Amino acid sequence: MLTIEELLSEQRELQEALAPGGLVEEDAPLHLLAATAELMEALQELNWKPWRKTKHHTNRDHYATELTDALQFWANAAIALGLTADDLTQALRAKWAINWRRIREDY
After folding, report:
1. Nearest to 47 by CA among 34, 35, 63, 33
2. Model confidence pLDDT, tens digit, residues 51-67
């Protein structure tokens, strides 16, 4: 099982090999836009348009690849701002707590 720490570490190494000097804060918007584009490509793999008369079979491999592309760009955006696995884990746990509270309170 891959951890967030491993994801960030491996992606940091990959980016350093691709573009020596590493990622800086100014790079974050580009990587977030690229992640968004990859998510749109993932969406195209799904049958999400209810008005379409013809349906296609979802190619799970293509879908997984597009999600993976988005994940790598997401990781780059996090790295560009110096976020750590601990930072992201704390933020995720805090958001989960908010969402569970909303569910309990029938938000």
Report:
1. 63
2. 988 888 899 999 999 99
